[in-house]
Write a structure and sequence with these properties.
It is globular and about 35 Å long. The protein contains 1 helix and 6 strands, in the order βββββαβ. By secondary structure, the protein is mostly beta strands. The longest helix is centred in the C-terminal third of the chain and has 4 residues. About 5% of the residues lie in helices and about 40% in strands. It has one domain.
Length: about 70
């Protein structure tokens, strides 16, 4: 699993499984799911992330890697 936040794009992407994206569906405003060939959700993108959550409260637990572009100062 990978989590990527881009401050420039204000987008949070959660990659659940490393697989080829076969389909993408915007399930609600600014929430996009990526699906593999089996129809499994393998990625979730949240656009305008800073408007939907308090990123200062983002807690990362038990991840090997967390990628952040231009970290938010707390």
């Amino acid at each position: 699993m990978r989590i990527h936040f881009s401050q420039d794009a204000d987008a949070l992407y959660i990659r659940l499984k490393e697989d080829t994206i076969q389909n993408t569906d915007e399930i609600s405003d600014d929430i996009i799911f990526d699906f593999n060939s089996n129809g499994d959700v393998i990625g979730i993108e949240i656009l305008s992330a800073s408007k939907k959550t308090d990123l200062k409260q983002l807690i990362i637990q038990e991840f090997d890697r967390v990628m952040v572009e231009n970290p938010v100062s707390i």
